[in-house]
Amino acid sequence: MIHIMRKTGNARSAAKEASHERIVDAAAKAIRRSGYDGTGVADIMKEAGLTHGAFYAHFESREAMLAEAADRAGAESNALAARIVASAKPEESLQALMQVYLSKEHLASIETGCPISALGSEMPRQSPEVRLAATRRIKEMIDLVARQFPDWGQPSAHERALVTVATMVGTLTLARAVNDPALSDAFCKATLQSLILPKADSVN
Predict the structure, then answer these.
(1) pLDDT at residue number 4
(2) Are the C-beta atoms of residues 114 and 137 closer than 8 Å to each other?
């Protein structure tokens, strides 16, 4: 009897965890697509295939869900960046990362792309828990970029990483903001050519 109850309890726990993951995945896409203010609980639950009433079995508040969504979006973006860096030659890792980050594909993939560029302008108005989650992932991105410099571990590498990440994010934000494809492309090309890419003549 105890064994049956334990199996039932484990199954329920696994089902709840799977539902929770679906909610967070849906919310992580939604905040990048529609912004924090445009992300409603009812829509997220519907997208996750769950009822609105089930929300509070997973989160204490909407802000708690948004914080997890911000963390998930940042983790996904950083994991992709890490894979790009790992697949490139050490001397070409930062170039490879910037080429993908400023590519037309990433430009068009706001729902699954970098949450910093998608949501940066909204962050000052978010709750402390949402900002904390986002800040932690931004710091991870900065550290990943800093590790690609030969003087990693020195203040100079960290400073260059700050400039590089700020320029990447700012470039992508501007490239998405304008409705002129030529200008959008020019932003990306100028950044690639002026920062660290003497060999890069174009962006995919």
Answers:
(1) 53
(2) no
Token pair for 94:
């930062």
Cα–Cα distance list, 115 to 77, 89, 118, 136, 204 (Å): 7, 26, 5, 13, 21
Q: Is 101:192 a contact under the CB 8 Å cutoff? A: no
Tokens of 12: 């329920």
The answer to whether the CB of 195 falls within 8 A of the CB of 167 is yes
| Residue burial 24-57, b: 16+ Cβ < 10 Å; e: rest | bbbbbbbbbeeebeebebeebbeebebeeeebee
Say which CATH topology domain 61-194 has.
Answer: Tetracycline Repressor; domain 2 (1.10.357)
Q: What is the mean pLDDT of the chain?
A: 90
**Half-sphere exposure for 78 (CA within 13 Å, toward CB):** 20
d(CA 100, CA 114): 11
Q: What angle do CA 125, 127, 131 make, to 5 degrees?
A: 85
179 C-beta neighbours (distance < 10 Å), count: 7
CB of 113 within 8 A of CB of 175?
A: no
Kindly report whether the global pTM for this prediction surpasses the value 0.70.
Answer: yes
